Each structure stands twice: as C-alpha cells, then as structure tokens.
Amino acid sequence: MRRIRTYKDVAAEAGAAVVTIPGQVMAQRERLARRLADIGAVAAIASGKGGVGKSALTANLAVSLGAHGLRVGALDSDLNGPSLARMLGVVGARFTAGENGMIPPMGSGGIRVVSMELFQDGADDPLRWRGPKGESWAWRGVIETGTIRELLSDVAWGKLDVLFVDVAPGTDRIARLLDLVPDPAALLLVTTPSAMARRVVARSLRLAREARVRRIGLVENMTTWACPGCGALTELYESSEPQLASREIECWAEVPFDPRLARSTDEGTPFVLAYPDAPAARAITALATRLRRELHL
Amino acid sequence: MKFLCVPCDRVMAFAERHVPDDGTLTVVFGCPGCGREMALLANPYESQLVRSLGVKVGGRTVPEQPMELMRGSLEGGRPEAFNDSTPLAREDAASRGPGPVWSPGALERLERVPSFVRGMVKRIYVDWARQHGISEFTPEVMDRARSELGLEGM
C-alpha cells in the first residue's frame, strides 16, 4: 500500500501561520492572552443552577469594589439571559471604536459593562444567530463560545484591577469559561440553601476542583429573611441536605434575602449604594472585602 | 484541513474563495508542482461550522476586526450599538485623501448590510480598495472584494 503523508507530516508546509485555520485560532488565543495580561484578576461568579442571584451579586460586588477605588469591569457571559446592562444602568449605551478594541460603556459606580443586551435591538428579542435553520445545535455552542472570547479579547477594558464574569447557568458554561480563561484568580459559586441548588453547585465545585481553580468560595444567597419590623431572621428554606460549606468548600458569605435587592438592581441602582446599611448589603460589602484580601487587591 | 496532490506529493495552495448567497462555500486549491486545481465545495452546515470559529478558509487578507464573529453572526443587532469611527481612523483617512467613490448600485448593496455591522464592513471594503488602488466601488468590485476577503454573509 502506498504511503500518503498525514496532516501532521505536511502541517509545517502550509505557509504563513495566519493562512491555516489552526494558525488563525492560535492568533485568537494570543489576542485573548494579551488582553487578559492587562487585567489584574478575573473573578468568575457561577453556580451551575439558575435563579440563585448570580447577576445581582456580580453587579453589587463590582460596585462595592469600585467604591474602594478599584478599576472594575463586568462581563455578562450569559448571552441568552443577559441582565448586567440593566442592573448597572447602561441599557441603550454604545460601544466606541478605540485603537485597541471596542470601548465599553461605563455603568453605575464607574464599572465597565459588557452584556449581550447592549447589542440586541429588541428588549425581548431571544438571541438569534444567522446560519442554517433547524440544525443550529451543531454550531450554536461554537459561535457562543467564540462570542464570549471576543467579548473578553476585543473589548478595550483598559487596565483593570478585577474583571467579574457572570457565568450563565449550567456546569458546561463554567467549563467553557475555563477553556477561555484557564486560570481565573477566583471562582465564587453561588447557591441558595435549597437541596436542589446545592446538588447542582456540588457538581460545579467538582468541575472547578478538577480544573484546579486556585480559589473557590461559596456564597450562600437568600439564606434568611429579616423581618422589617423587629429584625428577626427567619430561614427561607428547610433543607435536610448537608451544608456544602461544611463538607468541602469554605463559605465566604451568607447573604440574607431582601426584596429591595431585586427591585433596585432591576432599576439599575445597585443595592449596596441604595441601602448600604441593609443586612444583605453589609454581607455583600463584607464579601467584597474578603475578595480584596484573597486577591491582594 | 489540507489537500495533498498525491502524484506530486505537494501540499496544494489556496487559490481563491467564492461565497455564494446560498450558505455554501467554494474554495479552490492548486498544486504548486503540476498546476492541477481542485475545488472544495462545502455545504451550508460545514460552512457554518467553520464560520462559527471566526476563521477564514484559505487565510485572512485583512486583520480580524473587533467582535467580527459576533457582529457578522448576530440577527437583530441594535443599529446604534457601535460608533465605528475612531479619531485616529478619521485622521488616517484624511491624511490619505478621499476614499473610493461608491456607485449607486454599490451604495444600494451596502445599504442592505444590517446597520449593526455596516460600519465595520464598510471600513474593511475601503481598506481593501486602498490596498488595491481602486477608486470606485461597483457591485462587481464588491463581489471581488467579498470573495477575496471572505465576507461570508455580509
């Protein structure tokens, strides 16, 4: 049988690296690495579970750190359910072309914000991509990961002390982010005390451990509800599940439920600025302090 | 993906690319040894998979633009999301004199590009025209540019 050279045999003959597809992918990777080099720390806020308050926590943490004089960015990597633009008050803002990428709008507290909502025309438009219909499962994940890559690498974030990345629900989304940012400075896993949320977060924790993420902190959100009259704390969930924190991850914060948090973030006014003395705001501010200490910011 | 001319044992070189409006992709390769040419014909799904990576088969003739993949792929993009004209680009354009003239047919075609991505596409076309010493854009020149630049679907 005659021998025909393999791809690897001939790879070096292909000419300039930018001509080949691997060469172009490598160039994308290098562009991303150059951008990340300007960012002091990437902190991912994830869960695996939806509806646990990741985005509100991201917005308020970002504002808390911004209030300490840090240069902070916030990337909403939940392309299909974006919310950070609204929470940080930049809906309708524009990106401006800069010499080093697209300059993002600046939101509440001076936070540089990037969210898919800024690119979509209709407020209630589902995310749609151009391409062959009916078989989008074959390419949609690729294009969405590529989009997150671009939102990281092609945005002129400037010199940031910390970039928060709000990660969409699904443990696979954490894995995709780790493909792009293999060594985030910290990963905050957000859960509620519900048994279901804890089970999903346990999966995310395992994934993060396997990926050797350096710092992983747990945030227990909506743990209790404070009576506005007497201040007594009532647990919101009855759970027989063992505490995740006591088993294998340190709890960095317990944030009580406060209906004003959802309302103020929906209105684009960060809760920590609007109600700084509320127990939930104090818990988020303490978490920001913990994060500063952990990341040496 | 590479193509090897088996009789010559030479890697075939990229020659040209065609991007029809039906979602398919045609890429012509030629053997630098014997000159034989062959065309890769990709169906819409194969074309879309490659496009989703943000790469161009055969390589790039202009650098990748910021957010090119997202801007070229998103349906229903907000027209006013981007201000594409940088101060430096305006200075640069002024120093190099007026750009190419757009014929009515070319302008009409440009107008059909979604406004979300039009600024970026126009800049790519103008840079290409300057590189090639072209003073007027017609639909035919746009076809040539589109083919060379690999502006799939734009």
Write the layout of secondary structure elements.
The complex is a heterodimer of chains A (297) and B (154).
Chain A: H1 7-10, H2 21-37, E1 39-46, H3 54-67, E2 72-76, H4 84-87, E3 95-98, E4 101-103, E5 112-114, H5 140-153, E6 160-166, H6 171-180, E7 186-191, H7 195-210, E8 216-226, E9 233-235, H8 244-247, E10 251-257, H9 259-266, H10 271-274, H11 279-295
Helix pairs in contact in A: 2-5, 3-11
Chain B: E1 4-5, E2 10-11, E3 13-18, E4 25-30, E5 37-42, H1 44-52, H2 68-73, E6 82-83, H3 87-95, E7 101-102, H4 104-112, H5 115-131, E8 136-137, H6 139-149
Parallel strand pairs in B: 7-8
Antiparallel strand pairs in B: 1-2, 3-4, 4-5
Entry summary:
The complex is a heterodimer of chains A (297) and B (154). Chain A contains eleven helices and ten strands. Chain A is an alpha/beta fold and 297 residues long.
Can you give a write-up of this model?
- The complex is a heterodimer of chains A (297) and B (154).
- Helices cover 38% and strands 19% of the residues of chain A.
- Chain A is of the alpha/beta class.
- The longest helix of chain A is centred in the first third of the chain and has 17 residues.
- The model of chain A has no long low-confidence stretch (mean pLDDT 91).
- In chain A, strands 1, 2, 5, 6, 7, 8, 9 and 10 form an eight-stranded mixed sheet that branches.
- Chain B folds into two domains: 59 residues, N-terminal domain of TfIIb (Single Sheet), CATH 2.20.25; 93 residues, Helicase, Ruva Protein, domain 3 (Orthogonal Bundle), CATH 1.10.8.
- Chain B has six helices and eight strands.
- Chain B has a three-stranded antiparallel sheet with strand order 3-4-5. Chain B has a two-stranded antiparallel sheet with strand order 1-2.
- The mean pLDDT of chain B is 84.
- At the A-B interface, helix 2, strand 3 and helix 5 of A face helix 1, helix 2 and strand 6 of B.
